[in-house]
């Protein structure tokens, strides 16, 4: 008997024969780059919930504020290299990512607090699978994530040392309040611009085969999958922090850049469309765009607040039409490769 094309799961969600669920809505790009501007849409995006400022921007700012005020050494201490303050920052980052990624993991995966409700892939994390370190997807992802924290911390410590020694262009809120606020708002756009181009680079076949393949072993992603990367990819990924070498900024801008880069992947790789609290409340993670990248590999290299995928023809919006289009693109690519191989 042929396997049915769709099934209804325990939450009443329609899943295809692979067990995949889709929200039914198209991938949405933020309206900032739409022309002409729609003022209502812009205001809803900036001040609505969820939106640009709430909740994730506000959550990151709270984490950064506490970390800056209570768990970062004084400038005077960081003027000279000492393993103690470097260790303090590194341990701080390890604790933060453990609490952050761990909270998402416990909710979604360990205790399955919402079951498979709003879960894109119908399967759970892989066990007894030699593809992954320790034959376990979660522990593989945890190992590589902690490797990534070392790169995050190395970049951050280098920047702290440079700030402490007046080697970087520095501003404060008092000296330039307009640029201070604007720069903070622009950090996510810079980070996603940088991510798009780094991501395209590591999809170049030599780098993909030896570096980025490690991340893409995670087709069915979980919160720890986001930072599960090869060390070379970590080196490239966190290089977005180096923008503060040339752009006037405050250490808080650098921290926002670093923390969003380190913590954001847990959200974008949760594997769920929403965090569901009971029957009435839900918080949209809105990371369907990046889930489709793990599903199809050669689409959606960026994120939704920078429409680079739209501009360069790699945007998969989640519709059946996009499925058909990129399936044909893949067929044509394979044919071209075969033709080249036969001609050699």
UniProtKB/TrEMBL annotation:
Coiled coil: none annotated. Residues 185-314 form the Fatty acid hydroxylase domain. The keyword Cell cycle does not apply. The keyword Transferase does not apply. It is found in: Membrane. The chain crosses the membrane at residues 53-71, 91-109, 143-163, 178-198. Keywords: Membrane, Transmembrane, Transmembrane helix. It comes from the Bacteria. This is Sterol desaturase family protein. The lineage of its organism: Bacteria, Pseudomonadati, Pseudomonadota, Alphaproteobacteria, Hyphomicrobiales.
């Amino acid at each position: 008997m042929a396997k049915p094309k769709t099934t209804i799961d325990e939450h009443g969600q329609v899943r295809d024969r692979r067990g995949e669920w889709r929200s039914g809505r198209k991938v949405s790009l933020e309206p900032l780059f739409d022309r002409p501007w729609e003022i209502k849409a812009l205001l809803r995006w900036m001040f609505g919930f969820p939106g640009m400022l709430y909740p994730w921007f506000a959550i990151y700012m709270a984490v950064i504020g506490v970390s800056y005020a209570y768990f970062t050494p004084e400038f005077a201490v960081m003027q000279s290299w000492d393993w103690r303050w470097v260790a303090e920052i590194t341990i701080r980052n390890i604790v933060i990512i453990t609490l952050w990624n761990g909270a998402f993991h416990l909710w979604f995966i360990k205790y399955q607090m919402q079951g498979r409700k709003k879960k894109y892939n119908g399967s759970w994390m892989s066990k007894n699978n030699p593809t992954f370190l320790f034959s376990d997807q979660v522990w593989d992802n945890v190992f590589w994530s902690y490797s990534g924290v070392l790169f995050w911390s190395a970049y951050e410590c280098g920047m702290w040392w440079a700030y402490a020694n007046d080697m970087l262009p520095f501003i404060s809120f008092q000296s330039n309040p307009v640029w201070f606020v604007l720069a903070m708002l622009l950090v996510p756009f810079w980070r996603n611009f940088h991510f798009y181009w780094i991501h395209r680079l590591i999809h170049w076949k030599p780098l993909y085969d030896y570096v980025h393949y490690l991340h893409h072993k995670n087709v069915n992603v979980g919160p720890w999958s986001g930072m599960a990367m090869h060390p070379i990819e970590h080196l490239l990924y966190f290089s977005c922090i180096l923008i503060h070498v040339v752009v006037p900024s405050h250490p808080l801008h650098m921290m926002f850049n670093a923390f969003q880069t380190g913590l954001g992947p847990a959200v974008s790789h949760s594997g769920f469309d929403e965090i569901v609290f009971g029957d009435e409340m839900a918080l949209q993670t809105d990371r369907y765009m990046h889930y489709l990248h793990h599903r199809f590999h050669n689409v959606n290299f960026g994120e939704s607040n920078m429409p680079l995928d739209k501009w360069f023809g790699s945007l998969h919006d989640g519709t059946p039409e996009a499925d058909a289009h990129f399936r044909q693109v893949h067929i044509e690519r394979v044919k071209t490769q075969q033709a080249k191989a036969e001609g050699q």
